[in-house]
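Subject: design request, 348 residues
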């Protein structure tokens, strides 16, 4: 069976609406939402019904194209003004993953090149579809490059979900595992549960198990012991934003794993498409880190696990400094050092 038959798509364009896998309901239920309005798209992104940097970008692109269809004007400059307003509205849905901004700005540029409103409306849909198609091809390339770093029977640790459902297909950090499965290349994956929203337990464990990959779930505080006792050969993670010097924002807990990788002298890999790089930022200190609702920390689902009204700090991401990253894997290949020079050259 192929990956497409084993796993649902996270996002699908359906002509006048977006069909979205509701990732909040996984793993108990595989259900889909039909999004008809830009407000529904905004809510789906901010409430993590869709999450994962590339999937957020794809959904936002479709959301903007969807909104543009409803503008009742023939005037190109009025059309562009409304589009810019809707672009700015979608930009408030989540702050850290740069793919969101990358995708909606790409759509804005597309519309600017059209000479009529009708042309712009059609071009926007085509561009959003193109973003999704490109992401699938990109993730496959990332998977091939990443797999070249692993030996048969390696045990690899990952965090959060940087998988097929976080992208168009295959994923970034999880792509090598899906490709290894296709090629009968044995690998063992340890997935950390990823508190507070449990994307590792709910999504990665579900996705890899469904795809037939050998996956073992651990809680986040088991990472050091697991590396020590289970012969972890490498850690691989995705990314939400990589700055010009290679500093990498990813799910909270990633930085701690990078420190552990250094302590245990195992490689720490970041896998991400070029759409996740932000060359307007020199270092990770310039990245906005999303802080989310305290409910995510004080509750598991709707069940209260902390004193009511306790003070909570809930950053959704952290930044791993470039010197802890052994290699960054993109669709163009693997860069291992001198990120300050290697990263800009990826875009030449
Ligand atoms: O809060 P989330 O679930 O959107 O966070 C997702 C991650 O941190 C992923 O690792 C990252 O977006 C890469 S997805 C290919």
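Subject: RE: design request

Done. Sequence follows.
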């Amino acid at each position: 069976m192929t990956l497409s038959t084993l796993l649902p798509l996270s996002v699908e364009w359906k002509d006048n609406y977006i069909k979205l896998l509701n990732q909040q309901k996984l793993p108990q239920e595989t259900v889909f939402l039909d999004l008809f309005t830009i407000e529904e798209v905004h809510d789906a992104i901010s409430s993590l019904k869709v999450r994962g940097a590339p999937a957020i970008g794809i959904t936002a692109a479709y959301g903007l194209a969807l909104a543009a269809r409803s503008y009742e004007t023939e005037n190109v400059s009025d059309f562009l003004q409304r589009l810019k307003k809707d672009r700015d509205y979608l930009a408030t849905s989540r702050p850290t993953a740069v793919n969101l901004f990358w995708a909606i700005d790409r759509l804005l540029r597309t519309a600017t090149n059209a000479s009529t409103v009708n042309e712009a409306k059609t071009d926007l849909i085509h561009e959003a579809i193109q973003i999704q198609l490109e992401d699938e091809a990109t993730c496959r390339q990332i998977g091939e490059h990443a797999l070249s770093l692993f030996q048969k029977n390696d045990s690899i640790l990952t965090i959060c979900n940087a998988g097929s459902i976080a992208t168009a297909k295959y994923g970034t950090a999880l792509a090598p595992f899906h490709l290894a499965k296709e090629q009968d290349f044995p690998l063992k994956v340890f997935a950390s549960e990823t508190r507070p929203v449990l994307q590792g337990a709910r999504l990665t464990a579900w996705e890899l198990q469904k795809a037939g990959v050998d996956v073992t779930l651990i809680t986040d505080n088991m990472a050091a012991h697991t590396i020590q006792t289970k012969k972890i050969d490498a850690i691989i993670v995705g990314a939400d934003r990589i700055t010009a010097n290679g500093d990498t924002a990813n799910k909270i807990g990633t930085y701690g794993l990078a420190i552990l990788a250094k302590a245990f002298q195992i490689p720490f890999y970041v896998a991400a498409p070029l759409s996740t790089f932000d060359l307007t930022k020199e270092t990770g200190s310039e990245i906005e880190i999303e802080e989310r609702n305290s409910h995510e920390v004080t509750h598991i689902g709707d069940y209260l696990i902390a004193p009511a009204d306790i003070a909570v700090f809930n950053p959704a991401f952290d930044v791993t400094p470039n010197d802890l990253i052994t290699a960054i894997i993109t669709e163009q290949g693997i860069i291992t050092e001198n990120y300050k020079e290697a990263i800009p050259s990826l875009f030449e």
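The radius of gyration is 20 Å.
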